[in-house]
Amino acid sequence: MTPENQGEISLENVKVAVALRTARTALGWNQQEFAEKLGVAKSTVARIETADSVASAPVLMKALNLLAAAGVEVDLLGSAGLSFAVTAEALQEAKGRLQDDQLRRSDRKRGKAVD
Asked: Which domain covers residue 54, as residue numbers?
């Protein structure tokens, strides 16, 4: 890489970053959970999702397979952009996770409703 384009991020890296972050959040997984499922450090997931690092082929394939098994299909090969398909089961699972206060950060727990 030359000094002129050293800070430039490729469109393919952006595609991967957006795809993984979007699919992960559609499932309600945080970066730590995703990292554990992938067998990598949370910082690795964070760097990939911000396009600070390129996902290795084995990590990318494992991520896509994990996401597909959980109900989110990601098409990275489309030249015009990205496409996602989320199964009804995956949406139902995400709904349950979003409603589960035990899975929320302590600063984001819902208070009890006031009558």
From this structure: 7-104
